[in-house]
């Protein structure tokens, strides 16, 4: 009942407002013949009275005034006065509505005001939802300015492109004018000199436009390429500085999509979109000025199409941008599914899940296909509405153009020039309204890139400490830690450990009890939630990142080699490493012998991931890569399982030749553990026992039981 009452109240308010406004509108037309005021004064007094009357009626019937209604009342009241004042100021004549007020003029003004109000509300809404939408779009204006700021080193290319762009546009604008001029010369008494002059000027403008457009395109393409490369490098640098937990929680496909697709979209924003925007804007302003000179009345008629196009374009942009973002995310998920299957092809093959992976990838692609279909459907409807609007405007323009020619206000050549300008102007206005939406789409992609560029690593690498001498004394004090991906699952709890220079410490215990987590914390892949790690009584995070990882080297059970030569892999990350140093490290790792037997020696390519070498060979190269750094702390994580007895003995001899080296070993082979100065048994994220091999065996505690269960002489557990 309350809803019906409110509806009836609004209807009554509308009827009353229309009656009052029509009365005042007709009264203004009646006063024109008897008024003591001037023509323009009468219009502005009437506009003020209409505004006050409509405001009073609305307040009386509805009780309040909202901003959209205030804007409509203002536009509707002032439009006749503004139009008449502008016409008289520019052309010293009065419009038909100014001379005689009737229903047609009132309806025209009401329709124009309503279109303007709708266009305002859609493009610049006031609601909280609209404000939230702007925030959701990641503050497109600020992002766009950040995108432009990255172009600063390319200002010479962009400035040159802008100069040639302006020249091309100016030349192109005069071609339709001289086309109409040629038609007028041919249609009247033929004047050879005027005809040749018009043709010559048209040819010169065409040539200037073509040359300038070519130079503009070349310069801007160079700028786009340089800009895209610059953004890719900055994004890659930002990604490599993130903590390991970031890569555990972020999909690989998403990261690669940002590096490949979104950075290209950013380049498109700067190069193509700004190019099109400036070119179209300059052409539009120039064409409007030339069209006004040909016929200001037809120009006003053509410009009435603008708010309609803007309304259609804004609706389209809202839906198209949302679907485009969904497509980007869907493509990233599809890439991630493909990357997972390809990178784990051995597992896929061993479990016979080829069809399952193909089906999973097909499902992701079908999701992308569905989103693309919806996006393309929205675009098809938009194109249909846009072309119907343009066709309707052309019909109106031709009809009124014929009337103006009959009345002598235009020549045939002027109408041809105007039609040529109008065809370009319609495309330009549609391009202007489209390009803003496309720039929002591109800026949306830029927002995702800037999220990564602005992201601060949770594990800081801003330490500055680089002591001249490092003893290698490591203390882990009361550590508590849980992985970021599983914050509720505690891996280490009240864990304390001391690694002394010149000693080998062995960590033993069942899998999943926290041994490898200690290695990750020592490498500063993560920071503990509680406790601290000290190196020579200084917090680990206070050391310079590069210095720390040169003095603290790690060899993992599954070593990772990069595509390139053996020499490049051993000297990885060391710019000034000589061949003698590389060979010495290879000898200590028992790798020099098999490397010398290869056809290309140290220049032998290892293949992707070291696939051209056996696991034992990869392991020895990884050990050499660690030893060539001359580290003070060396961590060996399950490496002896891939080495034969001879290689293991040589590695141990090499370690023994470095009496001040701090060594931490995680191993299952009994011989390695027996020789350790300290054996630490880890269980449940805590230190269960510690001591030498013989002390722990005599104690017959957890280490003794673990040895009986998991260890066999000279082999690893299965």
3D architecture notes:
With 718 residues, the chain is an alpha/beta fold. It has 3 domains: 2-123; 138-331 and 388-454, ABC transporter transmembrane region fold, CATH 1.20.1560; 474-710, 3-Layer(aba) Sandwich (Rossmann fold), CATH 3.40.50. 68% of the residues lie in helices and 8% in strands. It is built from 26 helices and 10 strands. The protein has helices spanning 2-31, 39-62, 67-91, 96-99, 103-123, 128-136, 140-149, 155-187, 192-240, 244-249, 252-294, 296-303, 305-343, 345-350, 354-406, 412-454, 515-522, 545-551, 566-570, 579-588, 592-597, 615-627, 645-656, 670-674, 693-699, 702-710; strands spanning 474-482, 490-499, 504-508, 530-535, 538-539, 552-555, 633-637, 662-666, 678-683, 686-691. The strands form 2 sheets. It has a 6-stranded mixed sheet with strand order 6-7-8-3-9-10, sandwiched between helices. A hairpin with a 2-residue loop joins strand 4 and strand 5 (538-539). Helix 13 (305-343) packs antiparallel against helix 15 (354-406). It starts with a helix and ends in an 8-residue tail after the last helix.
Descriptive key words:
718 residues, alpha/beta, ABC transporter transmembrane region fold, Rossmann fold, six-stranded mixed beta sheet, four-stranded antiparallel beta sheet, 26 helices, elongated, disordered C terminus
Overview in brief:
This protein has 718 residues and is α/β, with parallel strands linked by helices.
């Amino acid at each position: 009942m309350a809803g019906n009452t409110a509806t009836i109240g609004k209807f009554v308010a509308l009827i009353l407002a229309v009656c009052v406004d029509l009365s005042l509108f007709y009264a203004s037309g009646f006063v024109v013949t008897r008024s003591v005021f001037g023509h323009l004064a009468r219009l502005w007094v009437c506009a003020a009275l209409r505004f006050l009357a409509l405001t009073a009626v609305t307040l009386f019937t509805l009780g309040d005034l909202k901003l959209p209604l205030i804007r409509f009342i203002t536009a509707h009241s002032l439009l006749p006065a503004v139009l008449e004042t502008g016409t008289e100021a520019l052309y010293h004549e009065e419009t038909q509505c100014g001379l005689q007020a009737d229903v047609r003029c009132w309806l025209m003004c009401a329709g124009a005001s309503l279109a303007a109000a709708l266009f305002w509300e859609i493009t610049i809404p006031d609601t909280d939802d609209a404000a939230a939408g702007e925030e959701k779009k990641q503050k497109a204006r600020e992002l766009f300015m950040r995108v432009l700021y990255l172009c600063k080193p390319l200002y010479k290319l962009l400035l040159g492109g802008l100069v040639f762009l302006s020249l091309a546009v100016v030349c192109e604008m005069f071609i339709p004018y001289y086309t109409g001029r040629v038609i007028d010369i041919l249609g009247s008494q033929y004047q050879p000199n005027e005809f040749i002059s018009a043709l010559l000027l048209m040819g010169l403008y065409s040539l200037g436009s073509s040359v300038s457009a070519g130079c503009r395109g070349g310069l801007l393409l160079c700028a786009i390429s340089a800009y895209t490369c610059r953004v890719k490098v900055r994004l890659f640098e930002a990604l490599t500085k993130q903590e390991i937990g970031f890569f555990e929680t972020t999909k690989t496909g998403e990261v690669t999509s940002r590096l490949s697709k979104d950075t290209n979209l950013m380049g498109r924003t700067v190069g193509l979109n700004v190019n099109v925007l400036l070119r179209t804007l300059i052409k539009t302003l120039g064409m409007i000025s030339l069209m006004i000179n040909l016929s200001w009345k037809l120009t006003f008629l053509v410009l009435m199409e603008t708010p309609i196009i803007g309304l259609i374009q804004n609706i389209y942009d809202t839906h198209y941008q949302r679907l485009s973002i969904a497509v980007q995310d869907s493509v990233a998920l599809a890439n991630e599914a493909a990357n997972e299957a390809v990178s784990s092809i051995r597992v896929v093959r061993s479990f016979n899940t080829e069809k399952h992976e193909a089906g999973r990838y097909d499902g992701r692609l079908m999701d992308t296909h569905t989103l693309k279909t919806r996006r393309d459907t929205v675009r098809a409807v938009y194109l249909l509405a846009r072309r119907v609007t343009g066709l309707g405007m052309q019909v109106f323009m031709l009809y009124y153009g014929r009337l103006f020619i009959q009345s002598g206000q235009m020549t045939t050549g002027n109408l041809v020039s105007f039609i040529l300008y109008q065809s370009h102007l319609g495309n330009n206005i549609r391009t202007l309204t489209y390009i803003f939406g496309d720039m929002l789409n591109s800026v949306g992609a830029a927002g995702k890139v800037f999220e990564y560029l602005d992201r601060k690593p949770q594990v800081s690498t801003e330490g500055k400490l680089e002591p001249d001498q490092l003893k290698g004394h490591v203390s882990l004090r009361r550590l508590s830690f849980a992985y970021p991906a599983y914050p509720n699952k505690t891996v280490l709890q009240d864990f304390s450990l001391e690694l002394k220079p010149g000693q080998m410490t062995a960590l033993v215990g069942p899998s999943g009890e926290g041994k490898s987590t200690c290695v990750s914390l020592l490498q500063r892949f993560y920071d503990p939630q509680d406790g601290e790690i000290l190196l020579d009584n200084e917090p680990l995070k206070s050391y310079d990142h590069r210095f720390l990882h040169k003095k603290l080297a790690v060899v993992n059970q599954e070593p990772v080699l990069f595509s390139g030569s053996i020499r490049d892999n051993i000297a990885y990350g060391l710019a000034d490493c000589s061949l003698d140093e590389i060979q010495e490290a290879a000898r200590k790792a028992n790798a020099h012998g098999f490397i010398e037997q290869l056809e290309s020696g140290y220049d032998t390519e290892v293949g992707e991931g070291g696939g051209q070498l056996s696991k034992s060979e990869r392991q020895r190269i990884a050990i050499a890569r660690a030893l060539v750094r001359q580290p003070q702390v060396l961590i060996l994580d399950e490496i002896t399982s891939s080495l034969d007895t001879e290689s293991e003995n040589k590695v141990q001899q090499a370690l023994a030749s470095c009496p001040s080296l701090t060594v931490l070993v995680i191993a299952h082979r009994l011989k390695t553990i027996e020789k350790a100065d300290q054996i630490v048994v880890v269980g449940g994220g805590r230190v269960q026992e510690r001591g030498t091999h013989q002390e722990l065996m005599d104690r017959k505690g957890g280490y003794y039981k673990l040895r009986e269960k998991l260890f066999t002489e000279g082999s690893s557990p299965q």
